[in-house]
Amino acid sequence: MYKLISPLRIKCNKSTYKSLNINTYRNIHHFTNNMMKKNYKFKMMEQINKLPKLNKIEVTYTIYPKTKRLCDVSNICCIVDKFFMDALIDLGKLKDDNYLFLPKITYKFGEVDKVNPRCLIEIKEIV
Predict the structure, then answer these.
(1) Which residues of the chain fall short of a pLDDT of 50?
(2) Domain that holds residue 62
């Protein structure tokens, strides 16, 4: 099993960070979305490059938000998943993210972590 740490916020320009969630993704300009996606890939590149080429996987996303404010787990995880899978494919670690290569995705809530908010990404290869 491989474990990677994803941020819950990503830089979208020189001084602004945006949360990775479906509301932000849906409501901001496509240019800003594209910049966030590029910045996410750059931020995750070092961790992804350490992975071997993967054939068939299942992935679990566990969020550890900064506050006790109630949140919709899938609202956050679906965008982390979108950005992460696109980065994984762009960096040549997975051929595609369709159900032939990724038949199972799980979203979970971990716990509040005021010091280190994050999304833990666990990748398990399927034989």
Answers:
(1) none
(2) 2-125
